Here is the input.
Amino acid sequence: MSKFKFPEKRNVKSIGGFHGVSAIFPKLQDIIDYEENNIYINRGYPRFVTHPLIKVLESENKTNFNAVGAIACHSYQSAIFLVIDFFFRKGNKIYFDEGLPIEFYNYLNKKFPGVITKVSDSEADILVISSQNGTFPSYVTGKINIGLLGTDKLDNSYKSSELNLLIRHDQKNNTGIILIFSIRNAMLTIFRRHIGFNISSRKICSKEILIERKLRHEVNLKRSIANLEHGDPNNCFLFPSGMTAIFVSIFSLLSIKKNQFIALGSLYVDTIRILEKWPKKYGLPETIFIRESIIENLEDSIGENTAGIIVEFPSNPLIQLIDLEKVVKIAHSKGVKVIVDNTIATPYNFNPFDFDVDLIVHSTTKFLSGKNNHIGGVLLLKDHKISKKIDNFTKLANLDMDFNEIRILTRNIRNFKDRMKKINENSAIVAKFLENHKAIKKVYHPSLKSDPNHDLMHKYLKGGSGLLSFILRESTKKKAERFYDNLHSPILKGPSLGSEKTLLSPYVIMAHYEDSKEELENLGFDFYLMRLSVGIEKVDNIIKSLDHALNFSN
Ligand SMILES: Cc1ncc(COP(=O)(O)O)c(C=O)c1O
Here is the structure.
């Protein structure tokens, strides 16, 4: 008898409404069960959990084309890129059919020569067949590994009835579907994650919109964000997710000669994954990870081939700061660009361009939106010379922000400054409360005088922002469970951050469950680390809820 058990389906409550980007996990064991694949959930963070609307689109297409699986992507072109990026390791032989834009092949071949070997269909390891009309050519029937379906430049008179399904959902906004015909279904989940070309649930239920209308909204949003970041709206790019903004920033700086990255301090898990995986995949030199803020090491690590340095300000989840002025000075003296992920500090507290940083990225999903109902990313450039490179790739892969996501962000960003003012105030009070609580061993927040980042906070930030982390006095599963399971309103037990609602998540369990003990030690992470994203509620109520739960863990 096989011991394999299908995961149990769990309906969970979403935070942020129907298009919410987080879900409530009432018990700590729910998170462990999710990580162990004992349960699968119907709502959650869009890069990890497929929204019910998208699920319908995917399953209908999967059935329709008799595929093993189907993955919906932001656009037809981004689906093509995702397939290429996912499957093609150095030396893989690929067959592209005529329908796939040759520009992609040319682009990647120029950037990473020899990575993709284009061959005839009979010699191919992997066949990629495109379809803009809903039919796949009969000469490869039974052989196709990957099918790509899209509605870009669709000619109505030519479409087959199969494509009606896609159009019914997509309304010709240009969605891409990757159809998997012959690999294991388990691989599908990996697709969605790291580089975040995910499709917004809003996109597939929206009507076709006028280009001029979209452009007008886009221009206005870019103007607001650029204004907040002391940047230029013409050098501002909107993306379907924060990870896409990060991916594009790294990808655009890489070239044949400048082919290595340096990662400074701790970074968000999927940024680490991109920096780890990419060099291997494309045969580039490995990323240099300087985990601690030892800037002295930086100068020696920069080589002729260093393309860029990426740093989070402050870092997630330990809220560490770095002496950025020094980093930029060293980098620029060697002709190296600096990317700052300013998601956590936010432009309310810090403007990297004032310190001569070259590229700023944000997950707009977080503080800039603040409502847990939007997913997106933004990239801003100081130097317009890189703008062309970013623009080229962005257009090639058709990586814009969906119109409806633009509309929601435009609405949410209006009270950004008021929200951040309150979040700064609340988080400093909550950090102090936690520091003095007998059930707590350690609190990470730069507003605390005892925090090693306190002086740097005064040098760079207006306030400590809303993210803080802490370790329980006794950091065991039992105590973590007693704390977590007894938390109540107004604190919501869900991942994500930057919402006006206070969110708590055991970050390391959630994001680094698979990492070994040594890896966690290396990163400086306690397995039961609790990460709190403080919101705008009455601070007494946040404290009351924390105190109540902490007393259970004591
Ligand atoms: C600091 C930071 N940057 C980037 C991201 C990725 O953003 P998104 O989920 O919008 O792709 C995250 C996600 O949690 C993050 O915490």
The mean pLDDT is 88.
